[in-house]
């Protein structure tokens, strides 16, 4: 079992796995809704969940950045080559950026486009861009385009994790795996 010097902070590990589950759920819901005709049920209801998950992910990402800034990351395994270290950092920064940018572009699209901004059927977020068609269009195009980047970056992250776990067997996953 890896020592605490080779693992991430427990709160960071919790945020990572909560984010992973919510991110995958939001991705799958968004993908499904993108295949359904606009204005139909259950698309409308699922988009409410998708947007609420997005806002939750944004808040978790902010918390994650704060916790990450206050804690030390464990050193990369000695078996990592310089290229693997660089690609790993690039993938992680891309994930952080997507966790922040995707909810913002989704909010822009919904706020400016006049769509619902309810948070899990409790309250509505303010509409900072109400009725601005240019912002709605920019938010929609950016959100839809970045969705493909999300699929690529998340796919690479999962593939690299599986490669390290089952091919390299270098305990990379253990650095982020929750402890009992």
Describe the structure.
- Helices cover 67% and strands 2% of the residues.
- With 180 residues, it is an all-alpha fold.
- Strands 1-2 form a two-stranded antiparallel ribbon.
- A hairpin with a 3-residue loop joins strand 1 (118-119) and strand 2 (123-124).
- The termini are close together.
- The relative contact order is 0.15.
Task: Specify the helix fraction band.
Answer: 55-70%
Please give the alpha-carbon distance between the first and last residues: 12 Å
Strand order of the largest sheet: 1-2
Rg computed from alpha carbons, rounded to a whole number of angstroms:
18 Å
Poorly predicted runs of 5 or more residues: none
Instruction: Estimate the strand proportion.
Output: under 5%
Number of helices: 4
Shape, please? elongated
Residue-averaged pLDDT, rounded? 93
Number of strands: 2
Can you summarize this structure?
With 180 residues, the protein is an all-alpha fold.
């Amino acid at each position: 079992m890896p020592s605490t010097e080779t693992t991430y902070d427990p709160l960071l590990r919790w945020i990572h796995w909560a984010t992973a589950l919510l991110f995958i759920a939001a991705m799958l819901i968004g993908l499904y809704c993108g295949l359904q005709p606009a204005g139909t049920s259950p698309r409308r209801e699922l988009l409410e969940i998708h947007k609420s998950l997005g806002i939750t992910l944004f808040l978790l990402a902010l918390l994650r950045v704060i916790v990450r800034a206050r804690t030390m990351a464990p050193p990369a395994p000695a078996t990592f080559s310089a290229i693997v270290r660089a690609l790993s950092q690039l993938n992680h920064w891309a994930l952080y950026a997507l966790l922040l940018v995707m909810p913002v572009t989704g909010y822009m699209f919904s706020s400016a486009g006049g769509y619902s901004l309810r948070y899990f059927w409790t309250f509505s977020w303010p509409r900072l861009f109400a009725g601005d068609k240019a912002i709605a269009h920019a938010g929609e195009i950016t959100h839809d385009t970045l969705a493909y980047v999300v699929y690529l970056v998340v796919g690479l992250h999962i593939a690299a994790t599986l490669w390290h776990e089952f091919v390299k067997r270098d305990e990379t996953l253990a650095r982020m795996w929750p402890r009992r």
